[in-house]
Amino acid sequence: MLQTVRKSDLEIQQDVMRELRWDSRIGSTRIGVEVDKGVVTLTGTVENFARKHAATEAAHRVAGVLDVANDVQVHLPGSPGRTDTEIARAVRNALEWDVFVPDQHIRSSVSDGWVTLEGEVEFLREREDAGKVVRRLGGVRGVWNQITVKPREVDPVALRKMIGDALERRAEREAGQIGVTVDDGAVTLSGKVHSWLEKDAVVGVVGHAPGVRTVSDKLRIEPWT
Question: Which CATH number fits domain 156-221: 3.30.1340.30, 2.60.40.10, 3.40.250.10, 1.10.3720.10?
Answer without folding.
Answer: 3.30.1340.30
